[in-house]
Design brief:
Shape: flat
Number of strands: 0
Largest sheet: none
Helix content: over 70%
Radius of gyration: 23 Å
Length: 95
């Protein structure tokens, strides 16, 4: 086994440990909830009411999928624009 392979294996193991250790130490006793839900509960407990109701309330899996799609589209547009600007700058430079 080469040193490079060993280092890669240890890095993968470290990343897995970063995710697994907190979940194992917790023992499943806490609920991992988002800040949106926590703020909504706090506001409703304080007597505040929403100004309007949402038009569309997808299930949790669909909601996270739509969020991931939105992030991917945004990253694609950002990458395209940065590449376009870099290409224009390189084309304008005299050789």
């Amino acid at each position: 086994m080469t040193r490079r392979t060993l280092v890669n294996a240890l890095l993968v193991l470290a990343v897995v440990a970063l995710f697994a250790v907190p979940l194992l130490l917790d023992g499943g006793t806490s609920e991992y909830g988002g800040t949106d839900a926590a703020v909504t509960e706090e506001l409703e407990a304080g007597g505040h009411t929403p100004w309007f109701d949402p038009l569309f309330s997808p299930a949790g899996e669909v909601e996270s999928g739509l969020f991931a799609l939105q992030a991917a589209l945004g990253a694609g547009v950002l990458g395209y624009v940065l590449g376009l600007l870099r290409g224009r700058r390189q084309a304008a430079e005299p050789r």
